[in-house]
Design goal:
45% helix; two-stranded antiparallel ribbon; alpha/beta; six-stranded parallel sheet; binds NADP nicotinamide-adenine-dinucleotide phosphate
Length: 302
């Protein structure tokens, strides 16, 4: 019932209806990313692919990371060789750390990769696959780049979700064990944590701009796989990947002043709390960062 209320409440805003009603198709903005080096995770499909292509079209050097070779090759070809396609399994913390070492010149990082799974799965490093892919991997890659590269002067966009509205900041739900695992709860907690991490990086690196953004509900393979009902019932009014990428591209072009505890959606900072209950967190941002560092240390990769 709670889930149904959530979907009904946000349908007009999060689908293409909201995108059109806010007049975004008519509000063009100029984007010139010449001289910038972007790294986009989960770039072989959906929103990530749209971001990689649009950044390359606007002059950026783009490193597009995905795990499957065929769509990576297809992406590099489709971009006319302007995108460097890199194969890595982003659920591996070691792979994320290796990326950070290999590409220290990244100054725009799009933490896009994200999954929603119905059943619990463990990575070979011993983390829940959703936790490793949606949060710990982002943290490993980002903190590695911040320590060793030029990203500290650059831009980070965390692709969070309106799903974050369903969890307060907490540690217990981030990597729940199989017996208490619920994919939606894990997703909400991990997406909430991405908002806190954007605030953390802005605080720690004053020359940086970090944002957490929600792309809206976008018709992608990810949605087809994990929310099949959504694709079936309201597929025709879901956003296109280009529309989902819109606020990411706008943030990179406009670089507005970051806003604490906000979700950027349709080119504006929106509340990170649609429900009063999430305003009372069960963890602090410092506690979150300590937990992520502890988990990195477990892999020997911090
Ligand atoms: N679509 C929406 O309505 C929506 C709404 C809110 C937030 N979001 C967020 O937006 C982001 C992108 O979503 P999307 O719908 O575009 O997802 P998507 O269609 O599933 O695309 C994600 C991409 O990430 C890749 N990927 C998945 N796991 C990977 C791994 N371990 N290593 C490397 N690449 C991996 C996928 O490649 P494979 O083909 O190999 O799986 C795919 O190319 C996610 O963070 C999602 O949570 C989406």
């Amino acid at each position: 019932m709670k889930a149904l209320r959530f979907y009904v409440r946000f349908l007009p805003s999060f689908t293409a209806i909201g995108y059109v009603a806010r007049g975004l198709p008519l509000r063009a903005f100029g984007a010139d990313f010449t001289g910038q080096t972007w790294l986009v995770t989960g770039a072989t499909g959906g929103i990530g692919r749209a971001v990689a292509m649009e950044a390359a079209d606007a002059g950026a050097n783009v490193i597009a990371v995905g795990r499957r070779s065929d769509p990576l090759e297809e992406l590099a070809t489709a971009s006319g060789g302007r995108i460097a396609a890199v194969q890595a399994d982003l659920s591996s913390i070691e792979a994320n750390q290796n990326l950070a070492r290999r590409y220290p010149d990244v100054n725009v990082l799009i933490n896009n990769v994200g999954i929603l799974e119905a059943t619990h799965a463990l990575t070979t490093e011993g983390f829940g696959r959703m936790y490793a892919t949606n949060l710990l991997g982002h943290y490993a890659l980002t903190s590695g780049l911040l320590r060793h590269g030029v990203l500290a002067d650059g831009l980070i966009v965390n692709i969070t979700s309106g799903g974050a509205y369903n969890a307060m900041l907490n540690l217990a739900g981030l990597d729940a064990p199989p017996e208490s695992f619920n994919g939606f709860t894990a997703y909400a907690s991990q997406k909430r944590a991405q908002i806190a991490l954007a605030d953390h990086w802005n605080h720690e690196f004053p020359r940086l701009q970090a944002y957490a953004m929600h792309p809206g509900w976008v018709r992608t393979e990810g949605v087809r796989g994990s929310l099949a009902w959504m694709d079936r019932r309201i597929g025709t009014i879901l956003r296109t990947p280009h529309q989902g990428a819109d606020t990411i591209m706008w943030l990179a072009a406009a670089r507005p002043t970051p806003v604490l505890d906000a979700i950027w959606f349709d080119r504006a900072p929106r509340t990170a709390h649609a429900y009063r209950s999430t305003r009372r967190p069960l963890a602090t941002t410092g506690g979150l960062v300590a937990r992520l560092e502890q988990d990195l240390a477990r892999t020997g990769a911090s």
